[in-house]
Amino acid sequence: MAKLPATIIDFHAHLFPDRLFESIWRFFEQGYGARVIHQLYYRQCVDYLRLRGIGTIVYSNYAHRQGVAKAVNDWNLEVLEEIPDLYCFAAFHPGDTDALQMAERLLDHPRILGFKLHLLVQRFYPHDERLMPLYDMIQARGKRLLMHVGTGPVGNEFVGLAHFKRLMERFPELPVTVAHMGALEYGGFMELLHDCPNLYLDTAFTFYPGRPGSFDLGPDALERHQDRIVYGSDFPNLILPRETELDCLLGYNLPQAFYDKVFHANARRIIDGITGKHRSRHPIGALK
Ligand SMILES: [Zn+2]
After folding, report:
1. What is the CATH number of the domain that holds 226?
2. Ligand 1 geometric centre to CA of 181 (Å)
3. What total number of domains does the chain contain?
4. Is residue 1 part of a domain?
5. What percent of the chain clears pLDDT 70, i.e. is strictly above it?
6. Where would a tag sit more exposed on the chain, N or C end, judged by fewer CB atoms within 10 A?
7. How much distance in Å is there from the Cα of 179 to the middle of ligand 1?
8. Which range marks the domain in which residue 38 is found?
9. At residue 278, does pLDDT exceed 90?
10. Predicted confidence band of residue 286 (pLDDT cuts 50, 70, 90)
11. Contact 132, 139 (CB under 8 A)
């Protein structure tokens, strides 16, 4: 029987300042009619995951509107200072006047892997012209993006495979991890792995059998792309148990190499690739 590796890397967790967490939880109840199971604040989230075999945690947050990225990123710098073995995809909003200067400085932090773009919530296209300098910067600095750009569990005019393809045609080598395996257009996002050498998919909130929108291509597709998938939990913003996803993936009973790669080695390679190339331009204390 396959098993999970001894230390798991969670490549898609969320940590937010307390007040933002609370408003996200309220949004889930009012907007989706679903209660977030684990309403835990950032230290509690880290403790919860650490007790369950997660070593390295890669978390993200995002700027849901203009003007909030600075405060969220100041908070990120404090949290990274406080908690070791934590990595971050920080907040970016292209509407902020100082967005690029802020981004340039943040990328100096060795444990800021890049930025999270949540196109569904932030409501701009992945190929928005305002993002092009950010993409150039990410490539030049050897960093990465985490993008929520799929149509699941809900979509709008800013997300979907067609928009993402338009970006990748222009930046085929862009280092980007697509959240939720690209839900719901799983096949199309997997196809793109062949043309885009730095594209990865994460598993977050995708393996809930029987739930509409759950991953539907079967275990063979996973095994074929096992070098380009990383495990992520979406914790703590989950409306179904985190364990269900682990049980589903283990239940496929794929060769052990699949679990070793997806739950550890692939993420390790990405992180080491970024931190190995890292050259700080400013001392960390001077980032704010
Ligand atoms: Zn997420």
Report:
1. 3.20.20.140
2. 12
3. 1
4. no
5. 96
6. N
7. 7
8. 8-286
9. no
10. low
11. no
